[in-house]
Design goal:
The protein has 7 helices and 8 strands, in the order αβββααααβααββββ. It is α/β, with parallel strands linked by helices. A hairpin with a 2-residue loop joins strand 5 and strand 6.
């Protein structure tokens, strides 16, 4: 009887040990699967990041090809490169095609603000606050803001009373919020140094914001511009308008924003946004990097609504 009980106890212990080992093995396998998934994700992210950097370097090369007809155009067009299992989309934007918040007059700033979702009264306040921020005096524009208004808002800083150094500084202007800033961010620059926008190289977003072209005419113009890019034809002239500038002569100020996004296995991961300036002839480096950001944009260059801007190109030969 005792021997039978001992055998039963031994069997229970064996079953318990086997169960414990099974649980441990399952936990170990689950941990390994999780670690493998994490490592795979890190690897894929590194690969996509490297692809995005490759896109920036290719864009630099294609912007300044000796054959001008073969150059990529910095007018908001998107270029596609297929590389192994990845797709790279690269968008080029000339800073001359943006609204310079240091040089734009009140009329242009007002047109820019009208393109946002801000209330009309808020739009006028922001325009005046921008003018007060960048001018050198303490005189207040209508509904604007100088030192006293910033103190009343209990802010620890005052208007700079000089030019914006970076577009991010616009977030400090009294009345500006993050939602409004994100709407303005694609439209503005501090590198143009021009009072008006060069509409020949302006993106569709900027042209729409300025609001001086019928939407149907704009879509037709963008289509013509994209087709001319794909076929290496000269860019079509911008339709005549009352506002903006059609002058392409200010090319000595060669500052560009490059947005490069890579997609691996048909899944968008990450990208890079770089602002570069072409160096003077004879400089040690051909480009000066003014800004470099790793981005994860809400609006991907692979979205359907970006297809209109897509120009298919092959990877350049070395």
């Amino acid at each position: 009887m005792l021997a039978s009980k001992q055998k039963g106890l031994a069997m229970v212990i064996v079953i318990w040990v086997l169960s414990l080992l099974t649980i441990m093995a399952g936990s170990f396998a689950l941990t390994m699967r999780r670690e493998t998934t994490v490592i795979s994700a890190v690897k894929d992210n590194a690969v996509v990041q490297a692809m995005a950097e490759t896109g920036v370097n290719i864009a630099k090369q294609m912007l300044f090809l000796a054959d001008e007809s073969m150059r990529w155009r910095a007018d908001g067009s998107i270029y596609l490169i297929n590389y192994q299992d990845a797709k790279i989309r690269i968008r080029l934007l000339s800073e001359l095609g943006k609204i310079d918040i240091n040089k734009a007059d009140e009329e242009l700033l007002t047109a820019m603000m009208k393109s946002t979702t801000a209330e009309v009264s808020k739009q006028q306040e922001i325009v005046s606050a921008i003018l007060d921020w960048r001018d050198e005096d303490e005189l207040i524009h209508i509904n604007g803001a100088e030192k006293e208004q910033y103190e009343e808002a209990e802010l620890s800083y005052s208007p700079a009373n000089k030019d914006f150094q970076l577009i991010e500084e616009l977030q400090m202007v009294l009345g500006m919020n993050n939602d409004l800033y994100q709407q303005l961010k694609p439209l503005i620059t501090v590198y143009s140094k021009q009072t008006q926008v060069d509409l020949n190289v302006a993106s569709k977003e900027v042209i729409t914001a300025i609001g001086n072209l019928d939407p149907e005419i704009l879509d037709e113009y963008i289509q013509q511009r994209t087709e001319s890019n794909a076929n290496n034809f000269p860019a079509p002239a911008f339709p005549l308008t009352e506002g903006g500038s059609n002058n392409q002569g200010a090319t000595n100020n060669q500052v560009y924003t490059i947005i490069s996004q890579a997609q691996l296995y048909d899944e968008f991961a990450t990208g890079i946004k770089a602002t570069i300036r072409k160096s003077a002839t004879g400089a040690d480096q051909p480009f000066q990097v003014l800004n470099w950001q790793i981005i994860d944009q809400k609006q991907s260059l692979f979205d359907d609504d970006m297809t209109q801007l897509l120009v298919t190109q092959d990877e350049p030969e070395n």
